[in-house]
Recover the amino acids of this structure.
């Protein structure tokens, strides 16, 4: 029986589908599997040469318990990845001797969030139809998450999706990806304010229980366990392609909310021979500072050219802390209370446990641009600024195992930074070249909770 428990120790234990539809636990914690399933070296060796979808099935299946049958889950996976522009889904490219790039940007919105969001869209649709139910998904975005969510849920019957983004503060590609879809269950809302305002209004809606229950609010932010799980798969496909289980492989991951790298840690716990997992941060380096000094201190976001990693509080780090503290939910709850007052210090024992699994490094703005310039010159590869942060940090952590850096977005999603570094303005892939010509559909909203709630109640198809 596969069960999910909260990192803060006091919320009810749930099944996979319940944890997926719930998102955040009622005690404020994050759901994690009560036990991590493992794969033997033989199981891992047998993944060699299989299609991505089949590896996805074998890696994720044990986490689902009885929530879906094998056939149901195979169908969900097929539909989730059918819209990708590359048959390998997560292809590897060599950058230098021993250094590889795993390209995670061939999904419909050109960023790695498609891997998780496309799967979660299909999982939600299937489960809600079975329950003869609907939900209203509300999310805040600084760009990538919102477009990935809209792309994943557009046209589905059981879901309305509302995405709040800061008016005038997302890139043109990101905005158009949110405003171009014409399906009437999609609602892009441009809020007069900053990303923090968007996030605060979403939080307010979840705390307004009458509204929350009335519209059946659901969240798909990066703390949803199903999103983490979907990201475990490409660690397996990459490592197996480079010689696992017979050879160890290391990964460097451009990190913000710690979801992507935490998936790598889960892969390792499952038995994948991962040597090092390297957290790469931009100038917003709270995670690098914490792993270096044990102090997790919030001190404000400085906007960077890798905006999807500009974070103050890295939400999924709580899951790593839970394990580092020996799965003591009370200890984690206490740290999170201290965080509300500005920060906390990780205990010596927990820090040691974290360092057994994670290395870290930081990349400045100048280093990001220099890495984009250098990588084009030496490897004929155009990197997005997030992937460049990863490549820079990976180069400082090369060891005896092959290194895989996760390339988290397509360069065309961040054309200004790439052009500044290389003089080359990256073009969109041909399959979405018409994005700039498509008409846009967006509603301007004031930064006012009641106005937003009223609009949502008017629009939904409950
Ligand atoms: C979201 C995002 C990241 C950070 O991933 P986390 O799982 O939040 O650590 C990095 N790069 C890009 C392009 C992203 O969209």
């Amino acid at each position: 029986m596969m069960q999910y428990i909260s990192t803060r120790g006091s919320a009810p234990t749930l099944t996979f589908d319940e944890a997926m539809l719930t998102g955040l636990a009622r005690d404020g914690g994050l759901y994690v599997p009560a036990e991590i399933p493992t794969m033997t070296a033989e199981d891992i060796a047998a993944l060699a040469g299989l299609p991505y979808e089949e590896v996805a099935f074998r890696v994720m299946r044990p986490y689902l318990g009885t929530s879906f049958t094998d056939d149901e889950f195979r169908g969900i996976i097929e539909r989730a990845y059918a819209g990708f522009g590359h048959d390998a889904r997560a292809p590897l490219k060599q950058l230098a001797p021993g250094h590889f790039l795993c390209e995670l940007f061939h999904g419909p919105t050109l960023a790695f969030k498609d891997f998780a969001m496309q799967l979660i869209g299909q999982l939600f649709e299937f489960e809600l139809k079975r329950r003869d139910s609907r939900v209203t998904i509300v999310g805040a975005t600084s760009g990538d998450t919102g477009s990935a969510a809209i792309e994943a849920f557009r046209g589905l019957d059981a879901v309305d999706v509302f995405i709040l983004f800061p008016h005038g503060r997302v890139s043109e590609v990101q905005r158009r990806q949110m405003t171009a879809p014409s399906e009437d269950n999609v609602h892009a809302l441009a809020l007069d304010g900053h990303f923090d305002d968007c996030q605060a209004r979403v939080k307010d809606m979840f705390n307004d229980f009458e509204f929350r229950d009335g519209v059946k609010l659901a969240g798909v932010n990066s703390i949803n366990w199903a999103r983490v799980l979907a990201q475990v798969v490409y660690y397996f496909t990459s490592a197996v392609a480079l010689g696992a289980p017979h050879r160890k492989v290391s990964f460097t991951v451009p990190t913000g909310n710690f979801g992507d790298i935490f998936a790598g840690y889960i892969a390792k716990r499952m038995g994948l021979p991962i040597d090092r997992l390297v957290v790469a941060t931009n100038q917003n380096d709270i995670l690098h500072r914490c792993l270096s000094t044990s102090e997790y201190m919030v001190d404000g976001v400085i906007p960077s050219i890798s905006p999807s990693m500009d974070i103050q509080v890295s939400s999924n780090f709580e899951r790593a802390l839970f394990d580092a503290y020996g799965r003591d939910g009370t200890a984690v709850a206490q740290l999170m209370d201290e965080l509300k007052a500005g920060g906390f210090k990780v205990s010596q024992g927990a820090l040691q446990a974290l360092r057994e699994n994670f290395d870290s490094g930081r990349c400045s703005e100048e280093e990001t641009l220099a890495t984009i310039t250098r990588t084009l010159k030496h490897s004929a590869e155009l990197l997005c600024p997030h992937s460049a942060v990863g490549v820079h940090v990976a180069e400082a952590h090369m060891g005896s195992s092959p290194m895989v850096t996760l390339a988290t977005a397509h360069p065309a999603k961040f054309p200004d930074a790439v052009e500044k570094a290389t003089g080359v303005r990256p073009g969109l892939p041909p399959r979405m070249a018409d994005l700039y010509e498509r008409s846009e559909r967006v509603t301007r909203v004031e930064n006012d909770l009641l106005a937003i709630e009223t609009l949502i109640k008017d629009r939904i198809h409950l």
User: Anything to note?
Assistant: The mean pLDDT is 95. The chain is about 45% helix and 15% strand.
